Amino acid sequence: MVAELSRLRDEIDEVDKQMVELLAKRLSLVAEVGEVKSQHGLPIYAPDREAAMLASRRKEAESRGVPPDLIEDILRRTMRESYVSENDSGFKCLNPSLRSIVVVGGHGQLGKLFCKLFTLSGYQVKVLGSQDWDQADDILSDAGMVVVTVPINRTDTIIRKLTSLPEDCILADLTSIKSEPLQAMLESHSGPVVGLHPMFGPNTPSLAKQVVVYCDGRNPEAYQWLLEQIRIWGASLQRISAIEHDQGMTLIQALRHFTSFVYGVHLAEENPNLAQLISLSSPIYRLELAMVGRLFAQDASLYADIIMSSPQNIDMIKRFHARFGEAIDLLETCDKDQFVDAFSQVENWFGEHAGRFLHESQNLLQQANDSTQR
Fold first, then answer.
1. Inside any domain, residue 94
2. What is the pLDDT along the chain (374 residues), one digit of tens a residue?
3. 126 closest CA partner among 95, 98, 102
4. Ranges for the Chorismate mutase domain (predicted)?
5. DSSP 3-state assignment of 125?
6. Which of 56, 89, 122 represents a domain boundary (last residue)?
7. How far is it, in rounded angstroms, from Cα 186 to Cα 65?
8. Element (H, E) at 127
9. Rounded Cα distance, 367 and 223, in Å
10. What is the pTM for the complete model shown?
11. CATH no. for residue 59?
12. How many angstroms separate the Cα of 65 from the Cα of each of 70, 71, 72?
């Protein structure tokens, strides 16, 4: 039995080695694809091509008795790595005549990411950091575009210092709130203005499938090349008004971060055995615990700024607190029928999205379980 098991394991190891060789070959081909896309200004992410390829491979897998979900999992993970490797080829420069791009706050994590992307696209990039303001006039004198990426609590002040930019210079910001920064840019600069909000963190290795929100400010025809450049990087663009953006971020960012913060505070005060909690966790609880824990591995000031950035965030949190209290009252009455009725109302509000989210979450939970070691 031992000899037979050893032989089979050896054969499996040989197949695994062949898989590594095939993956290496695939990545090499992807690098060539990246060079072609770079030359012709094609986005690194092509959703139609990806969907067609996955559908074809799923059919082929099924015909060979291989679970279609298995081959899709392998290919999606491989494609994620492929998008990262395509970055190495650089990107086509859509506005080669543009004067220098100045990134205010370019020494920060998000600033460094965008400096890298602009440099990979062939633009001349300068950084205006907190220690460089005595040289600001020289750095900004020939700017073709200025991108502001500084902490939220300093954004308005920094923008209002940018009052002597060339008239045709594009002024943009990367802040997670938009109404106040956009207004400050419009008041400080008479030229083209656009508000940007990257919906991802600075450690994102590739912009493929990421979202960049933009809010038009002034002279949108002057920065259309910038939006297209972002698409070439692989991101999806979502246009929205500054007011609508900030209303959405109240739920997407402020309330979500605050509830994670409160749950973390609650855990710390209850002081359970964390190692034991982890060992007892189902995949869904482990994932929830990870999402809370990751918050506390990051910059506290950043999240404080996001949550406290506007009165409407506080108002939303207060309404959530009130509804939380109402839900507790429901539990204390032990009225199961009322609970089911409230549950059904929310289910109806989600509509078809509920089933879709169930499917998506099942895939996430399976991936979380795959990475768990007991």
1. no
2. 788 999 999 999 999 999 999 999 998 898 888 888 888 888 888 889 999 999 999 999 999 999 999 999 999 989 888 888 777 778 999 999 999 999 999 999 999 999 999 999 999 999 999 999 999 999 999 999 999 999 999 999 999 999 999 999 999 999 999 999 999 999 999 999 999 999 998 989 999 999 999 999 999 999 999 999 999 999 999 999 999 999 999 999 999 999 999 999 999 999 999 999 999 988 889 989 999 999 999 999 999 999 999 999 999 999 999 999 999 999 999 999 999 999 999 999 999 999 999 988 888 888 777 777 66
3. 102
4. 1-90
5. strand
6. 89
7. 61
8. strand 125-128
9. 40
10. 0.88
11. 1.20.59.10
12. 11, 11, 14
Sheet holding 170-173, edge to edge: 125-128, 100-104, 143-148, 170-173, 193-198, 211-218, 236-239
Task: Give the span between the Cα atoms of 111 and 208, in whole angstroms.
Answer: 18
Q: Which domain holds residue 142?
A: 100-240
Measured CA angle at 220 (ends 215, 225), to 5 deg: 100
Residue after which a domain boundary falls, among 89, 124, 152: 89
Cα gap 242→258, rounded to integer Å: 22
Element (H, E) at 283: helix 283-295
Q: Confirm whether 360 is domain-assigned.
A: yes
CATH code: domain of residue 354? 1.10.3660.10
Asked whether residue 95 is domain-assigned, the answer is no
Q: How many domains does the chain have?
A: 3
Answer yes or no: is 325 within a domain.
yes
Give the residue ranges of DSSP H helices in 147-234.
Answer: 152-159, 179-188, 224-232
Both 255 and 319 in a single domain? yes
Residues 6+ positions from 162 with CB-CB distance below 8 Å: 104, 140, 146, 148, 171, 188, 189
Backbone angles phi, psi at 142, to 5 degrees: -115, 25
Phi, then psi, of 201 in degrees rounded to 5: -90, 170
Asked whether 197 and 253 are in contact (CB, 8 A), the reply is no
Looking at the structure, tell me whether residues 159 and 50 fall in a common domain: no
264 and 352 fall within a common domain: yes
